[in-house]
Protein 1
Amino acid sequence: MKSRLIAAGLILMVVGCRRSVDTAVARLPVSPSAPSSAHQPISSSAPQVVFLGTSLTAGLGVDPDQAYPALIQRKADSAGLKIEVVNRGNSGVTSAGTLATIDWILQNPPAVLVIETGANDGLRGQDPDSIRATIQKIIDRVRARDSATRIALVGMEAMPNLGRRYVAQFRAIYPGLARTNHLVLVPFLLAGVAGVDSLNQGDGIHPNPRGHRIVADNVWRVLRPTLEAVGRRP
């Protein structure tokens, strides 16, 4: 049942994303000034947790405080963790676009960097080996800037119409990179949300507020130990 829901959600992405992603790219060019922050840091002493991602992270179509990074902030606050979540989601961005902005992001290296990228590459059927290499460059750039930054990688899925081989190769990108680089891995950001009409906006692509709450649960379940390590109050 779960695999059918995921497949259904990705089929919806095939129908809608080819149009909407290109439109989003046209509206929101990738540049160092493009990423927005849903939660601006309010305490210079609090470790920063930066969410670097696509429109799924940016919260396209919902209020900034309804997007899953803002919900992670609230979960951390409730758990007594002293962290500051910064949302650097950028609608329409590819992994190459993310790489192009990473040095700007790393001007102030965060305590934790959560990387959600590759979904738009998959929508365009880009070569999985190329996507993997680009994400590896992002990881390498982070490690070179500050080896103390903890990195979490968010897994995505490719569309079934691209064929079983492509889907399998794309899916393998994320656990492979996580193993090689010893990263925390969120297996699939949209688990339990993809393909469920009541959890997505009318485009069938982007989670609605209810969907973002489930996405936040998916991320929190994996990321909580890392956040506790950097943000536990005395």
Protein 2
Amino acid sequence: MSSGEQLLLALGHRDACGIEDFMPAVSNREALAWLGRWPAWPAPALVLHGPPGCGKSHLARIWAARAGACRLDPAALPAAGDPAPPAAVLDPAEPIEDEVALLLLYNRLAERGGHLLLTARRPVAGWAIGLADLGSRLRAAPSVAIGSPDDDLLAALLLKLFDDRQLEVSDDVIGYLVRHMERSFAAARAAVEALDADSLRQQRPVTVALARAVLSAQDVQPG
């Protein structure tokens, strides 16, 4: 392995997840607005839902920092005798690991004026909930969708993902990817990861030609 390869592997990539790194866009405007209304939510819980990689976890981390919320393990929710946090995040909340424990957490937060932020790929109406009381509470909670990215957001997302991996790319590469790749957050992550790996393996910069080859190999071009 060359010294250049070793350096690149050692650097790895950072995950920028603060409010200054979040990219406001039409697709997430409503979600941002709802988080900005806290603590004046009309219910104890708020549900953010959307496709993989759309920014749900990023927004959850931003809100947790602002609200002093505890990020809970969905598979290990507080029991009846355990202290309950003033605010909590379940990311992801669905599928529900323990409906009784989640109902207990919801009720304890509601009694104390606390709040619960839940993230999921689907709205609550699509969740499998057997406990009627839990289902009624979650369905009554505000539910906010985060949509697919437009051109500007997709370009900004690609730039952020490349920057997280400390890769410099030209506007031509970003433009090519925006025009030819699948319009989704997951596809953007997959494309950048593949370009990073191929660039390192071939010891060449990320170019339009390399982007074309990666998209072709992934078969993610719309055709």
